[in-house]
Every structure is written in C-alpha cells, then in structure tokens.
C-alpha cells in the first residue's frame, strides 16, 4: 500500500472532504441552488398552484428587462441563499468524519 495513488492533493484533503468537492465547483452549485430556491420561495409567496406561472414570469422579466434582470437575479439569489448556505454549512459540519 506504499504505492497508493491519491485523488486529491494531500494538503487539501480536509478542505475537499469538508466542502464535498473543489471549492469552485461547490460555490457554483450553491449559487445555482440558491437562485433556484429563491425562485421557488418567491413563487410560494403568491400561490402554490401558480409556481409554473411565476417561473414563466421570471423568464419573461429576464427577457424584458435586459440588464435590469441582473437585479432580479441577485434578489432571488439572496432569498435562496438565506436558507441554502446555512443548511449546507450545518450539513457539512455535522456529517464531517471525526477520524479514521
């Protein structure tokens, strides 16, 4: 077992294990999940049966507003990130292996 090959660099094992992958890919997944959850939460605020209509309105707003759509996207990101980031952090914190 002296010639075993490691998949991750030795100095980053703990960081990669804690995050669940490379920091850039984890950040990208969290941003996407936050935006998607923000859209769903905003849609739930109106009526649960109109979620598809709210998503359609989101894409219509993105198309109609042009660069102002970045503001809408940012607001949805923040709305979702309020829940996604703490839940992700607590999940990673409590599922971290304590030792071998």
Proportion of residues in helical segments = over 70%
Class per helix and strand makeup: mainly alpha
Number of helices: 4
Give the ordered list of helices and strands. HHHH
Strand content: under 5%
- Span from first to last CA? 16 Å
Return Rg in Å.
Answer: 19 Å
What's the total number of strands?
0
The major β-sheet equals: none
Mean pLDDT level: 76
Poorly predicted regions: none
> What shape does the CA trace take?
elongated
Task: Tell me what you see in this structure.
The chain has 100 residues and is mainly alpha-helical. Helix content is 70%, strand content 0%. α2 crosses α3 (51-65) and α3 (51-65) packs across α4 (69-94). The longest helix has 26 residues, at 69-94. The chain starts with 12 loop residues before the first helix and ends in a 6-residue tail after the last helix.
What keywords describe this structure?
100 residues, mainly alpha
Topology (elements, then pairings):
Blueprint: H1 13-19, H2 23-44, H3 51-65, H4 69-94
In short:
The protein contains four helices and no strands. The protein is mainly alpha-helical.
